[in-house]
Amino acid sequence: MVKRLEFTHPSLKGKLEVPGDKSISHRAVMFGSVAEGETTISHFLEGEDCLSTIDCFRKLGVNIEQNGTDVKVFGKGFTGLSAPSEVLDVGNSGTSIRLLLGLLAGVPFDLTFTGDESIAKRPMKRVVAPLRQMGAQINGRDDGNLIPLTVKGSALTGIEYELPVASAQVKSAILLAGLQADGETTVIEKERTRDHTEKMIQSFGGHISVDGLRITVRGGQSFKGGHITVPGDISSAAFWLAAGAIVPGSEITIENVGLNPTRTGIIDVLREMGADMDVFVDEKAGLGEEVGTITIRYSKLRGTIIGGDIIPRLIDEIPIIALMATQAKGQTIIKNAEELKVKETNRIDAIATQLGRLGAMITPTDDGLIIEGEQSLHGGKVDSLTDHRIGMTLSIASLLSDGPVELENESAISVSYPSFFDDLERLIN
Ligand code: S3P
Predict the structure, then answer these.
(1) Superfamily assignment of 22-229 in CATH?
(2) Is the pTM for the entire model greater than 0.70?
(3) Mean pLDDT of the chain
(4) Active-site amino acid positions
(5) Which positions are tagged coiled coil (predicted)?
């Protein structure tokens, strides 16, 4: 499908709430499924990725009622899951497969994971290797690096593991396996990554100890279901923050957005680039997750250098940050972001080639991008390459282009933001 995007001197104005956080929505279903009793979830992200997680748990015998953004999970406890009669298909979702590999490595039955063409290229060894150290039996192409992967449920033993990559998915997979392993499991992070798994273990009544970058869980824990309100996804809000900052005449307010400090690198970058922005944190937020309101207004931005331990705090926002940088005064350099190569697409290449088609001057490097500022963009044919965040970045770019943008594979956007174009229409003046 091709979407034609054509705007004449738009400005974006108004207030909105973005859909629920993808990372938290996945985890809410996972913990709800292995908890005892019912879990109700509101403001669940009804995006394809999180629906894949629901689908996997239904195949594991968990009764889940989903009504739009309201979800009810009838938890079975860790021991109540049953052997699936079908393959577990995670679609496009890296979070589903990596976390489920950990969560299900210790169940007493066998299962097989598959996914779409993008997942088929993404590395799973980063999760499989530590899980094997714990005793998991996981096999697949390229020595268990690529789907389809089969898990032969087996008894696990706790390990101490130093993460070679800054990845919340790998950290979470090991912690989830550790919850069923014999003894204690410790993960030592390279850099702090999103800590939703840690927070959710606590809000479901479990125990976890966090000492700097050292995180420990013990096995044999059980969880109790409850109610979860998922905050808006800051990674989705990022598209409006960027649009508000770079589209002349704009002013956008985003309410009820998650402001967990492990996710707010985009706010730090906007401040560094000189954005006109107010951020209010709501004291009453639940789940141990900060929630608040951000207002952003158009202003002239300046280029910056982004690298080091901020990268995991904004890894998913780099495509839209790159677009902002094309409008800033001066050059922007993004480094230490080699993880971009193993996202839904190779995002270093995708950003450079697709924004390049609209006239941006972006040089891909081994670990990031060099972006020239003050670029005027023109219309053209671009492709999301089936990557939701590339698709949304190109759609926001079309607001600045002086001709129509034809976006191929726009449907990928529904992976994390099914109502993206409705919200865009609502904000356009
Ligand atoms: C996620 C972690 C990140 C992020 C992804 C969601 C999570 O991936 O890019 O969108 O929910 O744990 P990595 O762990 O590969 O960095």
Answers:
(1) Enolpyruvate transferase domain (3.65.10.10)
(2) yes
(3) 97
(4) 316
(5) none
